[in-house]
Amino acid sequence: MLENLFRGIFDSSYINVISVDKFLLCVGVSLLIGGCVAFTASRKSRLSFSLFATLLSLPALSCVVIMMVNGNVGVGVATAGTFSLVHFRSATGNAREMALIFLCMVTGLITGMGYLAYAVLFTLILCVIYMATSLFDPDAKGLRRRLRVTVPEDLDYTGIFQNTLSTYCKSWKLTQVKTINMGALFRLTYNITLRDAGKEKAFIDDLRLQNGNLEISIAEAEMQDSDL
Fold it and tell me: What is the pLDDT of residue 228?
């Protein structure tokens, strides 16, 4: 009776029907894989709640789609078109987020085909690689910053902070110069990577000595399109 309840109205003797227990097993494994990927990513980088929820649910969604296609070429083409629409209607994230989303889609495809052990093994390998590469990423250590320094208009800012930046930063780049306060001041914006987050106050104090104790701000760096 239960098997007939979940049988499609268009099913026939020529179509392989997925049993309820196998359906639940594949979906359950997909959810576990999504949770593993989402948890690993959240431990090594800052994730928004929406991305966390997406990584958690995407393998199960892809799994169900593949199980429902079940060898039907026409449905498979329609599914590919649906995924294309989702891609072009969404904002492009950074390279790491795109890789995580693609990983979840691939694992969902594998579980939907019934290769549960391969899906789990593939997820474990990619999670280990992700954690290993995060050890060399300044974002994972919270060292990347957006620095804004205000200087008077009569100060030649070219190279004035060179020594201080080289002392406290692994890398830096001047991304914007803007006049403020009716042209009486300049605001310099840098993308920097700190050597040691614990020396942030000492870094600011040294900058204050050079810019006449005007406004200085340091914030978490925003991800740019160039990071793709």
Answer: 41
Rounded to whole angstroms, what are the CA distances from 147 to 157, 170, 222? 14, 14, 11
pLDDT of residue 1: 53
Q: What is the CATH number of the domain that holds 209?
A: 3.30.70.260
**pLDDT at residue 162 above 50?**
yes
Residues 39 and 100 in one domain: yes
Least confident of 82-86, 135-139, 162-166, 187-191: 82-86
Answer for the pair 222, 211: CB distance below 8 angstroms, yes or no: no
End residue of a domain, out of 134, 160, 188: 134
Residues contacting residue 194 through CB under 8 Å, at least 6 positions apart = 143, 144, 145, 168, 169, 170, 200, 203
User: Model confidence at 124, in pLDDT bands (50, 70, 90)?
Assistant: very high
Q: How many residues does the chain have?
A: 228
Q: Are 69 and 36 within one domain?
A: yes
